[in-house]
Amino acid sequence: MVRLSVAQLVPTLNGGGVERGTLEVARELVRRGHRSIVISAGGRLVPQLVDEGSEHLAWPLGVKSPLTLRWIWPLQRWLAEQDIDILHARSRLPAWIGWLAWRSMDVMTRPRFVTTVHGLYSVSRYSAVMTYGERVIAVSETIHDYLQRYYPQLPAERIQRIPRGVDPVAFPYGYRPPPEWLAQWYRCYPQLRSAWVLTLPGRLSRLKGHEDFIALIARLRAQDLPVYGLIVGGVESGRQRYADQLRRWVQAQGLDGAILFAGHRTDMREIYAASTLVLSLSAQPESFGRTVLESLSLGTPVVGYAHGGVGEILHGLYPAGLVSPGDLQGLAERVTTLLTTAPPVPMKPMFTLQSMLDKTLALYESLRHAPRSRI
Length: 375
Known about the structure:
Blueprint: E1 5-9, H1 17-31, E2 35-40, H2 46-51, E3 55-58, H3 72-82, E4 86-89, H4 92-103, E5 112-117, H5 125-128, E6 135-138, H6 141-150, E7 159-161, H7 179-188, E8 196-201, H8 210-222, E9 227-232, H9 240-252, E10 259-263, H10 268-274, E11 277-280, H11 290-298, E12 302-305, H12 308-317, E13 322-323, H13 328-341, H14 353-368
Parallel strand pairs: 1-2, 1-4, 2-3, 4-5, 5-6, 6-7, 8-9, 8-11, 9-10, 11-12, 12-13
């Protein structure tokens, strides 16, 4: 085996789906004896990254400022000095810095350039940088279709579909939280004991469907159903006002105590397993839907809007949970039905973490030996 040196570029390492995927690939690179480096502005996941054997370079390539362009030349020098084989950009601004550094290097000795399209970005020249990779990873069929529709100049042979995946060992089917976790959980939230718990995971952002979730809980409570809503996710930077608005709306609807804000949590496996249903109600299509897949992997039913990556996953694994986007009446009816007669989630691993890792590292290896050209 020839050792690879792979540098991944992300804005920060604070715990979102992109960052977690970055750590998963980094961990697998180290496990297979390769060198793994992540370049980011830092964040709460950096200690884990380093503990697992990767290197971290604290460069703020994702800061939206003209001053960020100053990192182009240091990055170019670093790539050459460190003899990096693969430069993998996972976000737009770091991709611009990476591409601008990469494009003027010697074609025969520069790293191979890979991008992953993690989101349904606005179609623009700024977003187009995610199509500049020598290989462009689409994380779902939804992303593949988006690329082909809005960037027809991107050759189909440069796109590779590699769906995100979940480790069934980390999210085992039928998992139940340990007694000590449950005891602490019910000390914090005693009202959730012996109740129907509907959980909406995701940062507090206008796109994540919190308004629909609150409206759903209000409808169900009006029917005297013993349901509680659990909102799990931190406040996005610059979104504190929105988070405050949500809390005021909950109070105005008389739902204090019925809808709980748990904030950012690192024990999502236990929370999913302790939930009756998990919801995915994003107003706009998601590129994939990791929270949906994690919940289903555990055997917890999911109800979600039938669009984007969430729709893909539910169509394949749990069609009973599909609801037309924005249909609040249909949502309430579907949830009411599943609370009493939910069909079991099949034990059917369609999207596994190991498959994603195998395909990603195979892409690195094949691209390393592929003919070089100036893109």
